[in-house]
Each structure stands twice: as C-alpha cells, then as structure tokens.
TrEMBL record:
This is Tail assembly chaperone. Residues 165-177 have a biased composition (Low complexity). Residues 155-177 are annotated as: Disordered. It comes from the Bacteria.
Length: 177
C-alpha cells in the first residue's frame, strides 16, 4: 500500500470553490432552475455606498463555504444552546413523543435573550458585520425566511409539473431549522 502524503490545499483552490459557489448561483438564475436564483436587497445609501449596499439572499442550498459553516453553527446552537419547553413523553414517562419546542423569544440555557431569528439568518448570510450593516441600512431581515419559503414552493411546483421528476427528489438537499 503506498504511503499517503498529506495534501495541502492552496488558498487558490479554496477560493476557486467560493467563486464556483457564486457561479452556481448565477447559473441558477437562468432557465429551468430559476427557482434557485438569488434575490437582492439594497440598503439605504451611506457615505461608503452612495447608491446603497446590495445584499444577496442566495437559495439556502447554494450557500458558499463560509455561509454553510455559519448555518451549521446556527443549527448546532439550536440543538445545544437554546432553551426548550419540556419534552413530551407517554404517560408512563418511558417514550419520547415530541421534543420540546424552542422558547420564543429565543433564550440561551442561562435565560439570556438571543438575537431575533431573522437577525441570526442575516449573520449566516453576511456575517456579523454584514448583518449589522443590513439592519442599519433598513433591510427587512425577516424577508430572508420568506424568500427561502418562496424558493422552496417554486421548487415543489417545478417538480410537480415535470413528469420526469414525479416521485423523485430534486437532487438538491434542503436545509432546515
């Protein structure tokens, strides 16, 4: 068996993947895959962005590497750091029927209030600084989830109208929270 040498992945290769994510989102805006297209929102003008900074809301299945990492961090927080209502068990207490719902407004295990869900989604898409700029720029952060729901609905309609897709998955994994 040959020795396995560690392979170093150069910054150029890492960057190419991010560029490819952007290219994939651009291609998704065309033709039969238009349900995967990004939507864009423009913030109020600032000295730095006299025409208003533009924020991209990509399809949640076309997140770049950094966005995907932040999404998975948020999912991990939901499982391990958010307060929940008590779990529901059978009367004998032996079988879990349903996991307790998240406490709303969201709180951490110590009872501290967490940022609103739309703001957390903005952090996933644009990072901490970008989410802050978007909020300050008047971007309606709750639109992120609405846009994702619309994209999901468009994908379902597309699959329902395509006889080749009947009974099969889209080939695109869905993200959930």
């Amino acid at each position: 068996m040959p020795d396995k040498q560690p392979v170093e992945i150069t910054d150029e290769v890492k960057h190419a993947h991010v560029v490819n994510a952007a290219d994939a989102r651009a291609q998704a805006s065309e033709g039969q895959y238009s349900f995967l297209r990004s939507e864009f929102r423009r913030a109020k003008p600032t000295a730095e962005h006299p025409e208003g900074e533009v924020f991209e809301i990509p399809h949640k299945d076309l997140l770049d590497n950094d966005q995907q990492e932040r999404w998975e961090d948020l999912q991990d927080d939901l499982l391990h750091k958010y307060q929940r209502e008590p779990d529901v068990y059978t009367p004998d207490g032996k079988t879990l029927i349903a996991k307790g719902a998240l406490v709303v407004p969201h709180r951490d295990k110590d009872g501290n209030r967490l940022p609103p869900w739309p703001y957390r989604l903005a952090i996933v898409l644009w990072g901490e600084d970008g989410a802050k700029r978007a909020k300050e720029g008047g971007i309606l952060l709750s639109e992120i989830e609405v846009i994702w729901a619309k994209q999901d609905q468009e994908m379902k309609e597309r699959l329902a109208s395509d006889p080749k897709s009947a009974g099969s998955g889209s080939g695109v994994a869905t993200a959930s929270h």
